[in-house]
C-alpha cells in the first residue's frame, strides 16, 4: 500500500535558483528527447523507446545531468507516459493529442522515480530534504510526517512556492485484533 506525503519546501534564494535551473534543464531534456523520437520516426521509420534514450544518457555531457541521472530518467519516463497516453487514445478512437514541446510556462515539475539522488531526514512534521544539486532544503509537512519507506519524489512549482510529493510504501495494513463480540446487521 502506498501513501503520499505533501511537503511545503522552505527554500533559500540559492536553492530556489538551483531548482529553477533543474526545471529548465529537465524541460530542455524532455524537448530534445521528443525531437529525437519524432526525427527517428520521420526520417528512419524507427521507434525510439525510453530504454534506448536512458542508455544514451551515460555518454552525454549536458547540464541536464548535473542534477543526477535519476531525475533525467524521470523526465524520460514522463515523455514515455505521454506517448502511452497518445497511443491509448488513438486506439480508442478519441482525439489522440500528440505529445508537444514544453515551454517554461508549461513545465512545473520534476520526478525522481528512485530514491538515489534525494533523502529525507527528520521526523514528525518538519525536517530536511536533501536533493542532489540543490542541497538540504527545510520542509514543513501538512500531515503527521512521512510514513513508511520513501520510494519516489515529485517536486512541483506552484506559483512562487515549491511542494514535494513523497510516495511511500507503508506495507500491508494490519487487521484489527478479534474482540470476541458478534455483530448483526439488517
Q: Could you list some keywords that capture this structure?
A:
single chain; 186 residues; 7-stranded antiparallel beta sheet; alpha+beta; 34% helix; 7 strands; globular
Q: What is the count of helical runs?
A: 3
Taking all Cα atoms into account, the compactness measure Rg is 20 Å
Low-confidence stretches: none
Structural class: alpha+beta
Lateral arrangement of strands in the main beta sheet = 2-6-7-1-5-4-3
Distance between the termini: 32 Å
**Broad shape:** globular
Largest sheet: 7 strands, antiparallel
Helix content: 25-40%
**Helix and strand run:** EHHHEEEEEE
Number of strands: 7
Proportion of β residues? Answer: 25-35%
pLDDT averaged residue by residue: 89
Fold and architecture overview:
The chain has 186 residues and is of the alpha+beta class. The chain is built from 3 helices and 7 strands. Strands 2-6-7-1-5-4-3 form a 7-stranded antiparallel sheet. β4 (126-131) and β5 (135-141) form a beta hairpin. α1 (13-44) packs across α3. The longest helix is centred in the first third of the chain and has 32 residues, at 13-44. The two termini are 32 Å apart. The model has no long low-confidence stretch (mean pLDDT 89).
